[in-house]
Structure formats: C-alpha cells, structure tokens
Amino acid sequence: MSLERFINKQTSSWMSGTGPHSDVVLSTRVRLARNFADVCFPAIFQFDDAKKIVEQVNGAVSEKLSLELLKMEDLSPLQKRVLVEKHLISPLLAESSLYGAALISEKEDISIMVNEEDHLRIQCLSSGLQLQETLNEANRIDDVIEESVQYAFDEKRGYLTGCPTNVGTGLRASVMIHLPGLVLTRQMNRIIPAISQLGLVVRGIYGEGSEALGNIFQISNQLTLGKSEADIIEDLGSVVHELMSREQSARDALVKTSNIQLEDRIFRSFGILSNSRIIETNEAFRCLSDVRLGIDLGYIQHISKSILNELMILTQPGFLQQYAGGPLRAEERDVRRAALIRERLLMQETN
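The line above is the sequence of Protein-arginine kinase; the predicted structure tokens follow.
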C-alpha cells in the first residue's frame, strides 16, 4: 500500500487540523462514564453480564447511529495497539480479551468503549478547541442509549461509576494542546502546578502516566462530583484560553528576542526529518514540534499544519508495524519511522 493510501485510510477526522484555534489546540475530547442499573459493575460481573451489555448497547445505537462493533477478542494485539494509538480505545480496554468491545464511527470521531472500567465510556473527538460542541455530541449519543436502558444514577451523587473519581457527571473533558513557546521559554514547570490547583490535571498525549512528547500536553478536569457539566466545560475552557494567550506571547517573545536562533532550530529539525535514515520517537516528536511551530510562525509555508497531528500517530509502534505488514524490532521501527517521515514530507512538498 502506498503511503498516501495508508494515510487516507488511517487518519481520523480529528487529525485534520481545521478546527478553531488549531494553531495551538490539536483536538478536544469529551468522555462520559455510564453504567447500567440492573447489571453488576465490570469489577465483579461475569461473562454473561458483559455479553448482555454489548448486545444492549449495540441494539440501542444500531438504528440511530452508524457505528461498527469491534469485539476485543476478535482483534489481534497489533490491531488493538493501533486503536489505542488513535485514542479510540484505552490500554485497559485493549487488555480485555473476552469482555471488551468498542463501537466506532466511520470518521472515528465517536467511540463507545464497552466493559472497560465502566459499562460504557462514550467518547467524542473534535479537531481544534470545540468543548461545548463536543459535549453536545456526546450528550446526543448518551440520550440515544438512555432511551433503551436505565443507567445507575443516584439523585444525590449523580451517575455511579466504577471509580469514585468519576461519580457525579461522569464527564472527563480534555484538550490536547501544543505549547512549544512555553516549553522553550521554560514556563511550563511553573504553570503545571498552578493548573493542578484549579482542579485540572496535565498529562502527556496518551493520558495518565504518559510522556509529554513533542511539547504536546493533555489538559483535563480532575473533578466530576459537585460540578455541573457546564461548570466543568467553562473552567477547562478558561484555562485553555489563558494557556493559548500565554503561548502566543511566548512565541512573540521568541521571534522578537531570538529570531535567528529560533529559525535555525526549526530548519535544523526540518533537515533532520527530511534526511534521517534512523530516528527514535523522542527525537522525531521534538523535531515535529519544531516544524509545526515553524509552520504556525510562517517560516515554513509549503507544509500543512496537519502534519504534526498525522505523524504523531503514524510514527507510533503499532502504526509502523501495520504499515510494514508485520512485527518489527525497536531498531527496525526507528528505520521505518525515518523512512515514513521522509516520504510524508516529500509527498507534501510534491503536492
């Protein structure tokens, strides 16, 4: 398969880089945790319970939503790894061999994880900063399902979930944001603790326990109990807008005080990506971050800004092995990663 066909087949709609404020915000995600009232929670349920959940959810959405049912037991480890890398399922769901399933839309902007930590994790993804719009879409899907099933809900505590931290609204909203200016000006170490004091959490691109590769961070709410959905979205949106403003100021300062050094860094990174024959994940993400910054600042004008969104997914181990058609050792992945990036940049320049 050619790289162009592979990209067209494998990229999701949220990677397009066309959403609001997409020069800084890569994507928005909203996730709702829900459980059925008449079935044991996943921590103690049996296979028959899990099967019942899958059948009920699939039946509830099949007539009103165009989603494909994927059972984890039917997928290979590589296929599940690719779904994790595309943010469509969690690592926890990927580890489920008998109970887990996912319902995914063709554009991959909707993913309903079934029998993970909760019976349902309704997830919607959007390009750029679209918190309210993404929440509205998640609530629409939630309403469709609730027409057919009864959720575990308490008038005082709200939606009941497998983990106490999700009780209440069951809402986790997150924004994936590119902050090279704040990192290069050494402000992030001061900003992260301040964000945490506001009830939000800062993580890497794959959530809890992951590394902030390529100056990309996930900002999400930490509290779901005692706050309304509107409050959670408003609080997160306010912090993201403040970060965007500070990031723009940091970029302006870099251009004003260190323009030639910044330009040199950007084009050195572009040169590494364009010519390397072997490249590790950390170096690839650092260089991709620099190039994306160069695109946003106008230094590089012949490359689409969606390239960071695409390549941060396509250069992950699962995707590299899928493109190669089989398992690869770590050194082989580094070679494949370099070749894929070179070919992608050349394809962009040719177009």
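Note on the example: The chain has two domains: 2-247, 249-350. Residues 249-350 form one domain.
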